[in-house]
Design a protein that fits this description.
It contains eight helices and nine strands. The protein is globular, with a radius of gyration of 19 Å. The protein binds guanosine-5'-monophosphate. The site of guanosine-5'-monophosphate has 14 residues, from strand 5, strand 6 and helix 4.
Amino acid sequence: MAKKGLLIVVSGFSGAGKGTLIRKLTEQHDHYVLSVSMTTRAPRAGEQDGREYFFSDVPRFTEMIDQNGFLEHAVYGGNHYGTPRAFVEEQLNAGKDVLLEIEVQGALQVKGRFPEALLIYVVTPSVEELRRRLEGRGTESKEVIEKRLKRAVDESDALEAYEYIVVNDDVTRCAEEIHGIVQGARCATARNKSFIEETRKALHEAFDH
Ligand code: 5GP
């Protein structure tokens, strides 16, 4: 079976709990690694450079784009966000399953470039719960929260581009559900073309005289 790791995109409404889910997955299964993105947005209280994000200014970000240093990149809320390419490629080659926590435009770029990538979308159990979680965070202004809720409306139009949708009603349950999806996806014939080819060849060699 495929020895390379799986590229897994996790998107979802802001406030759906993607970060917590991903942390849970990386804590519980050591074949998962999180790709740390680069962004031009300012760090929030408690965020550390190199942990939540690599914080960058616009010229450095643009230089990375010019050097083809991103697997994908997009603008969200007026700031740039991008996935540094080198880390992801290294980890996939080492057999790790790499999680990208990115928004829809970036996810669509990944899907275009890596058709075997697994795209999962996380939603809250209800619209009311989405608002409650965003307001409860206490890190954002009312204006930013409204913007993010509007963005959720736009993103919902692109949902069919994702292979799976999961409801984050309970972090432990939902993380295990995502893990199950990943295990299933690993066995998909579409992601094992060379294994199928090898199996076929071996069968022909052994039995087809
Ligand atoms: P936040 O500012 O709340 O940390 O992130 C805003 C949005 O940007 C979230 O939907 C998050 O998933 C997305 N995001 C974070 N990193 C990347 C990235 O590298 N590429 C893209 N396309 N989106 C990202």
